[in-house]
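Q: Start with the shorter request: fold the first protein.
A: Done. Sequence, then structure:
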Amino acid sequence: MFGWGDPSDHPASPSLPTPMQSIIAMTSSITSRALFAILVVFLVSQPVLHAEDGDDAVMALTREYIAKRKLPTRSEGDGLFRILWVGNAAAPAKTAMVKHGNDAIKLLELWTGKNHLFAPEKPTPADTFWLVIMPTDADVIGLLDLLRSQKLLGKPENGDDLARKLANVVHLRVRAFSFARINPAGNFDHMAAYTAACMAFDCMSYFAKLRGHHWMREGFATEVQMALLGSVRATTVAYELTDKSKGTGDWYAEMTAIFNGTVKGVRLMYASDALAGTLDAIPTSMYQQYCAMFIFLRDSALMRKDAVGPDNRLARIIAAWRDDHASDTDATYAAFGTNDKKLSAAWHAWGTQPKQAPRK
């Protein structure tokens, strides 16, 4: 178990929800997840609007820390998602991390009806999402300790300091990773798309004081990879504890096999199970069904005449979470005018059909 109530990477505040933590892996495929893991904070969503003062302080202190270590830096990008390369850390040739990160955020906006849920209409520098890539684990851990000493990040309460073990810093608009840790796995573009989608969703969730909604968060973060890169190589792997099986590496083919009943020992979930599910030590097949639920609802929403604007069905689900404190199931049933039995039947029938990557 990963201690879902541990506030180790969250700015202390009695008025805000405690974030949940998990681990994500950036690997060569969904079937080889053990190469690299990063700590991720679940914070969850209203329109993002503008950053808090603490976010500016985190990035300012990060720059100060890097300067004191006399490490050269190189900023990349001028959109919402940017990268700060530190020291000898550098992206391999033919990667487009900044582009994929910004495109991922644009897709979140597109799929939810262009309602500025994830990106402000007129962004300011304070709204920037920063991915900071430092040379070594020691560089990142030093920054982690500094931010904690200044109370800009919380300390772990359950004794299991995953941030230190995995050498990463996770804050609303600042994520710092170790180049030495991520370089062997490669998949830099997938990492950027996944990280940007998660940061945008987590930031929206944080300001709306939402928690959970894993099917939508992970659905967004995996689908942007399919749309932009044609494969999924960055996922949340809290389920790694229980799932040691090897799949085909074909994300959509594996999903379809689950719904067609050709995967031995896998139970097909009801819609309510997928909507209300957690990420605590689940098998890959459950995670993929969460993501399949997102794809099905996303596609259903985009096929409607009200796909753009506040009546977009995914936007209505988020609004119900935020304004009415509705559960995932109640919000979804209300948005689509259905119930668990009808939604499950439609979802299961859709799941048996071949799938294509979404358009950019």
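Q: Next, the second protein, separately.
A: Sequence, then structure:
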Amino acid sequence: MKRTVALVVGLFSLACTGKGGEEPDDTGLTAEERQQADIEHYQAVERGLRASRVEIAGDGPTELTAVGPNLFWLDYHQQWDPTVYVTEPGGEPRALRVIAYDTLNWRVSDALLVNAVPDFGVVAYEVVDLDGNALGTTELPAPGGGRRWWAYAADADDVYVVDEDADALLRFAPGGTPELVTTFTDLGVDLGIFMDFDVEGDEMIFVESGRIWTADLDAGTATWLENETEASAVATNDTHIVYTSASGLQIVERATMETTALADAVAGYALNPTFTTLQSPSGGGFSVVGDQLVYLGSSGVFAYDMVSGAVEPLLLDQRYDDVETVEYVNPTATSDGVLYVKGLVSEPGRPGSEARIYRVEP
């Protein structure tokens, strides 16, 4: 996602008073006046970015997930009927499927939603399209050892399941019979604790025992990224792999396999002399759209261009407001460059907050 942000410099004409024995700087401002000017600059930038923000949902949304041009999220506003919603380009949010509270799991592609439902020794992988219409159900034996379903994923019109007992990656169309894609032995992987995976086209990205692997399903080969700390979430494009770990967000360049910490890559950015660490990664969700890595900073949402190295604020936390404050969490972006983010909204002086989903057009 590429956004050009016009930074309105709010440097108001402040008299040089020299209060407290402070010496003016090169702008003719004391330290106190300089800080106030920087706060006003922050406010001006924040308001400018906020102008393109539109609220699309409230009532406790969570688990924002972007796949292709669509946004999905889970809404707990009815405690015993958690509901997955979808927003397609140009459309309004609509309920897609109720997920059983005691078996809460779901995966999506740009064409379908899958829900694994355990039932007396089998797991039914129930599939619906993005209008909520049932496409079919495929049953597989349930895993043992206290696990209720195997890890699964969706890509386009197919569902993938990792059967660890069989050391196998399976694939099936909605309601169809599973077929073997490959085994991990054939990929050259001594499978440890399998954690999660995703498939896009012929590439599988998976995490086992904290290690990140990329697998070429056509060639039947797998490559370990040699990450030094246990990884969790992963996002990719054609040139980079981004993952989060105990060491923070890491960027791997595919061509060289060199790894760069996002915190180091963005350290040179500053909004102004007072606000020098707003862009520092703080966890809480990220997306890769084109060459842009969209992530949560210490006070807002930022984009880092993994090719040029440019850093841009997309939204700044609404901190200096007499009416309400907004702290952003869980940013995600769709393939058409639209930013979606969850905002925790509170009124100054009152405890608690409510969650809303905002959309920001590119």
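Q: Describe the second briefly.
A: The radius of gyration is 23 Å. The chain has two helices and 28 strands.
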